[in-house]
Design goal:
Belongs to the prokaryotic molybdopterin-containing oxidoreductase family. Its cofactor is Mo-bis(molybdopterin guanine dinucleotide); [4Fe-4S] cluster. InterPro entries: Asp_de-COase-like_dom_sf (IPR009010), MopB_CT_YdeP (IPR037951), MoPterin_dinucl-bd_dom (IPR006657), Mopterin_OxRdtase (IPR006656), Mopterin_OxRdtse_a_bac (IPR010046), Prok_molybdopt-oxidoreductase (IPR050123), YdeP_MopB (IPR041953). By secondary structure, the chain is of the alpha/beta class. It has four domains: 73 residues, no CATH class; 297 residues, 3-Layer(aba) Sandwich (Rossmann fold); 208 residues, Dimethylsulfoxide Reductase, domain 2, CATH 3.40.228; 114 residues, Barwin-like endoglucanases (Beta Barrel). Helix content is 36%, strand content 17%. It is built from 32 helices and 32 strands. The protein has a six-stranded mixed beta sheet. Strands 24-31-28-30-29-32 form a six-stranded mixed β-barrel. It starts with 15 loop residues before the first strand and ends with a strand. The site of one ligand MGD has 34 residues, from helix 25, strand 16 and strand 24.
Length: 759
């Protein structure tokens, strides 16, 4: 008996299913782009705005962190970039009248989609203790409220300063400076939930927590492995780069439990030929079981070791450490166990090996499919082992390529948004600004939630993002947020974090990337760093959504003056007036930013130094690139259970829902779907179209339930299931995190499917 979807969601969630598509982008994508953009912005504004995305004198696309090609087309059409822009440049507005009409209790019952559709925030809004309506307040009053709460804490460590990844370098630098002058390293950020595992693994093994390839390297590679990533939806411009790499002779191996449209076929909307034919990007598709990647790479490493002449011995001898221990572990890799862990066949792995051995220059790209598991850090370390074996780091056309998410998430970390800052960074801050920064480690996202839950943190301040929806274990997180004294969100759009609040709450509306930023010294630009460590300027041109908006740097500077007062010797007023003065300080504090202002004047921007890439120097504890030898792990499933990954549809940007379709996966008009392999579904007795509850099972014995998901028979790997985030965050236990990086394991949740209404 099929149950019914819950009626509580005001959005009519009635999924229709047509089966997966094989081709991504092309003309239909352009059509969708324009339709979506015009609904939000109108025709004229659409044309003017989209023409400025990623142009030399324009703004950086607020979508993903994929780098710009050197020769930028006018409007390099990217459907999802355009949606991100339209979402921000929309003409819809949320005014004080809106809040008068909608009490918070009402907002808390709305879907994230509905909240986002209301438009741009226009005024600072305050929710007083016990009140049910936000009311407009002046900026002065808003800063007074934050100051009142911050200065009455028993310790600065009772405050949390979260950052999402759209924040510019300038705002991020000021924000961490303020938090540290205030006295805490509690700077959790979205990266904790995202590529933290990559940073942890790369820092330890190659000494730099960032990718080691530039765009040119992709064009020169012989082999590109794309593992745990869905570029057709999340990094569409990457497909053009892969297409170019292929034209230059590269082969591509895709490792994914799902066949994802863009990797199968890609129609490049920039070229007439690409439009007509569409290229198959993937040469070998390894449809892996969720969490099987470490086992796969371990076995490939064993096979490389067993092949005469396959190891780059000169590189290994000169540049690496830990080879003996690693080879011992790798030689013990077992075929049978690997086939079980990966669900692959022997001939597929043999074929992969042939391609690996035929390649002199190999790049491995990855995203959330590798970073959000319990054993993510050892998995990424195994990828590093794989590349080191054949000397594939610090050589043109080769290297590690973690593909970042938010457009400036990498830059924010470079600017010091980190709960565990390096002592050298704090020394530099101390020297430049003449205060003693706190030295103890702060809370990351998961620890911040626990701290609020346990009343150890009482003020939550967010520079962007949507903390309650993005975080794991929604019910736990929401209860934790509600315990706070004050929650503050610097935001462009309304989201659930504005409705699930502390005793008091503030919404501080801010300028987006697309908007003109006028300060005392004139029009400002900001800077961002992409996934490949290129830094460049971003300049908004649109009229701000409201005359009451302040820029993120201005908000931080005014707040800092109000909270820190005379005690701070930092020239906050000057920083607010002229962002170039902020960049002058960054230049003196952050290595690689020497002459920042002069260099960023070059429209192409500049590359940050990367010792392993540039000079095969590995600034690790051993002074060499480290091989590692962790035991192989993979998820083991109890009978009748599936391993659920929580992922993005084609119509969302993280917690921002653009629409209810996932075109490439053939799903329309609904998000409460769970994709299940037809064989598994048959064994579980779940016909396509059945409504089920997803129930997550974790060792704490707590039952976490997401009701009313329509089963969709879908060609995912056996034993695996997929459903969208954030609807399924309720299923991810707070304590289920990656070892070392503490990233929520949102790609490996053990679930059982119960027919809705049966129990
Ligand atoms: N349009 C759009 N663009 C975005 C975003 C967005 O929401 N919308 N989000 C941005 C952000 S913050 C990020 S971090 C990135 C996210 O970019 P992605 O990492 O591409 O995002 P996900 O949707 O989480 O997709 C995870 C992919 O990994 C695969 N996968 C899952 N588990 C495994 C596994 O165990 N092994 C392997 N090999 N594969 C696995 C899934 O099938 C899926 O293809 O995109 C950024 N860009
Ligand atoms: N289950 C599960 N959970 C996940 C993931 C997953 O794959 N599965 N992915 C994780 C990942 S990779 C990430 S990065 C996090 C994302 O976590 P967050 O970064 O916290 O979430 P977003 O949805 O990107 O934030 C959207 C909000 O940011 C605000 N915003 C947009 N632009 C701006 C701006 O320019 N300035 C300011 N101040 N605010 C702005 C808007 O108000 C909008 O509502 O979620 C994580 N959570
Ligand atoms: Mo992310």
């Amino acid at each position: 008996m099929a149950g019914k979807p819950p009626q509580s969601d005001p959005v009519q969630d009635a999924p229709q299913v047509a089966g997966p598509k094989h081709t991504a982008a092309g003309l239909p994508a352009i059509g969708h782009t324009l339709r979506h953009a015009q609904q939000q912005m109108g025709v004229r504004r659409t044309a003017l705005t989209l023409l400025r995305v990623n142009q030399k004198d324009g703004f950086d696309c607020p979508g993903c962190a994929w780098p710009e090609p050197e020769h930028r087309h006018t409007a390099e059409f990217c459907e999802n970039g355009a949606k991100a822009v339209a979402e921000e440049a929309t003409l819809r507005r949320v005014t004080p009248d809106f809040f008068a009409a909608h009490p918070v209790s009402d907002l808390a019952n709305r879907s994230g989609y509905w909240l986002g559709q209301q438009g741009r925030l226009t005024r600072p809004m305050y929710l007083a203790e016990g009140a049910d309506h936000y009311e407009a307040v002046s900026w002065e009053r808003a800063f007074d409220i934050v100051a009142e709460e911050l200065t009455s804490l028993d310790s600065p460590d009772e405050a949390l300063f979260y950052t999402s990844g759209r924040t510019s370098n300038e705002a991020a630098f000021l924000y961490q400076l303020f938090a540290r002058e205030f006295g805490t390293n509690n700077l959790p950020d979205c990266s904790n939930m995202c590529h933290e595992s990559s940073g942890s693994a790369l820092n330890e093994t190659i000494g730099v927590g960032k990718g080691s390839v530039l765009l040119e390297d992709l064009y020169r590679a012989d082999l590109i492995v794309v593992a745990g990533q869905n570029p057709g939806t999340n990094h569409p411009r990457m497909l053009s780069a892969l297409e170019k790499a292929k034209a230059n002779g590269a082969k591509i191996i895709t490792v994914n439990p799902l066949p994802e449209a863009g990797m199968e076929r890609f129609k490049n909307p920039q070229t007439a030929q690409g439009m007509l034919k569409g290229a198959a990007l993937t040469d070998l598709f390894l449809q892996i079981r969720i969490g099987g990647d470490q086992a796969l790479f371990r076995l490939l490493n064993k096979l490389i070791l067993e092949t005469e002449g396959a190891v780059d011995e000169a590189f290994v001898a000169e540049h690496t450490h830990g080879y003996e221990e690693f080879t011992e572990a790798a030689r013990a890799a077992d075929w049978d166990e690997t086939l079980t862990a990966t669900g692959l066949t022997r001939s597929q792995i043999d074929e992969a090996l042939r391609m690996v051995l035929a390649s002199e220059r190999t790049i491995v790209c990855w995203a959330m499919g590798l970073t959000q598991h319990k054993h993510s850090v050892p998995t990424i370390r195994e990828v590093v082992n794989f590349l080191l074996l054949r000397g594939n780091i610090g050589r043109p056309g080769a290297g590690v390529c973690p593909v970042r998410g938010h457009s400036n998430v990498q830059g924010d970390r470079t600017m010091g948004i980190f709960e565990r800052p390096a002592p050298a960074f704090l020394d530099a801050l101390e020297k430049e600004f003449g205060f003693a920064p706190p030295r103890g480690h702060g809370y990351d996202v998961v620890r911040a939630i626990r701290a609020m839950r346990d009343d150890k943190a009482k003020v939550f301040f967010a520079m962007g993002g949507n903390f309650v929806s993005a975080s794991p274990d929604t019910e736990v997180t929401e209860a934790a947020m509600r315990r706070a004294r004050l929650t503050v969100h610097v935001s462009t759009k309304l989201n659930r974090s504005h409705a699930v609040t502390g005793a008091r709450a503030l919404i501080l509306p801010t300028l987006g990337r697309t908007e003109r930023d006028l300060q005392g010294s004139g029009e400002q630009f900001v800077t961002v760093e992409d996934s490949m460590g290129m830094v460049h300027a971003s300049r908004g041109r649109l009229e701000p959504a409201s005359e009451h908006l302040l820029s993120e740097p201005a908000i931080v500077c005014r707040l800092a003056r109000r909270v820190l007062g005379e005690a701070s010797r930092t020239p906050w007023e000057e920083f607010e007036k002229d962002y170039a003065t902020v960049r002058d300080r960054v230049a003196r504090v952050v290595p690689g930013f020497e002459d920042f202002n002069a260099r960023v004047a070059n429209p192409a921007g500049f590359a940050l130094p990367h010792a392993p890439r540039d000079e095969r120097r590995f600034p690790t504890a051993t002074g060499k690139a480290n091989f590692t030898a962790a035991p192989v792990e993979y998820p083991r499933l109890p009978e009748g259970r599936l391993l659920l990954q929580t992922l993005r549809s084609h119509d969302q940007y993280n917690t921002t829902i653009y629409g209810l379709d996932d075109r490439y996966r053939g799903i329309r008009n609904g998000r409460r779907v769970v994709l299940v392999n037809p064989e598994d579904a048959r064994e579980l007795g779940l016909a396509d179209g059945t409504y089920t509850d997803l129930v997550s099972e974790w060792k704490d014995g707590v039952e976490r339930r997401a009701p009313g998901f329509r089963v969709v028979h879908y060609p995912t790997a056996r034993g695996c299931a997929a459903a969208y985030y954030p609807e399924t965050n309720v299923l991810v236990p707070l304590d289920a995190t990656a070892d070392t990086s503490n990233t929520p394991a949102s790609k490996s949740v053990v679930v059982r499917l119960e027919q809705s209404g049966t129990d």
